[in-house]
Amino acid sequence: MLRVFRTALAAVVVTAAVVGVGVLVNRPSGPPPAKPLATALAAADTTTMTVRRRAFCTAVPTADVAAALGSGASRPTAYRPGQKVALTPTVTDIADEWGCSWTGTAGRAARAWLFAPPVTRQRATKLAGQLPKGCERISAPAFGAPSVAAACGETVTLRGLFGDAWLSCELTSPGLTPARLLDRAGRWCLVVARAAG
């Protein structure tokens, strides 16, 4: 009787071990990682998205940065409100925003920045009416509401209101046609908005 019990117990243990290994080996691996810059800006309703007014640079996926730049990217250069930063090659000021930038090869660059104070719809409408010097307004899918898109040579800038947060992002990519640059910039800016949300 004891021998039968031991044989039955051994069979149960062996069966449990085999089933356990089978479960581990055949366990689903989950969904595949999303393709970088997979979603076009026109395919998303950014007018209902909200963004948190806080640091966001580390939330931007590295694969999307590399895809936006078309090559490997530098580590982000990030800044925060109250920090003295070079906002442009000729302007150094105390930042009132969170921002980050990445550089690639051949003059490629990606930037994003988010105002620290809340922005009202009235102020956002005024900001959307202002274009950076040397830029022209272009037609683009909404990037928040209100929003504005501008072409500045080989740079496309998108800016808009997400809840009470004014978010700006830009992509510089020499050599792309205007249509391809706008599409890539839109995909890049959508990634930024989702990371900041």
Structural features, described:
There is one protein chain. This protein has helices at 2-26, 62-69, 121-128, 178-196, and strands at residues 77-79, 84-88, 91-94, 97-103, 109-115, 136-137, 147-152, 155-162, 165-172. With 197 residues, it is an alpha+beta fold. It has a single domain (41-196), classed as 3-Layer(aba) Sandwich (Protein Transport Mog1p, Chain A), CATH 3.40.1000. The strands form two sheets. A seven-stranded antiparallel sheet has the order 1-4-5-9-8-7-6. Strands 2-3 form a two-stranded antiparallel ribbon. The longest helix has 25 residues, at 2-26.
Write the layout of secondary structure elements.
Blueprint: H1 2-26, H2 62-69, E1 77-79, E2 84-88, E3 91-94, E4 97-103, E5 109-115, H3 121-128, E6 136-137, E7 147-152, E8 155-162, E9 165-172, H4 178-196
Antiparallel strand pairs: 1-4, 2-3, 4-5, 5-9, 6-7, 7-8, 8-9
Q: What's the short story on this structure?
A:
By secondary structure, this protein is an alpha+beta fold. The chain contains four helices and nine strands; from the N terminus they run H-H-E-E-E-E-E-H-E-E-E-E-H.
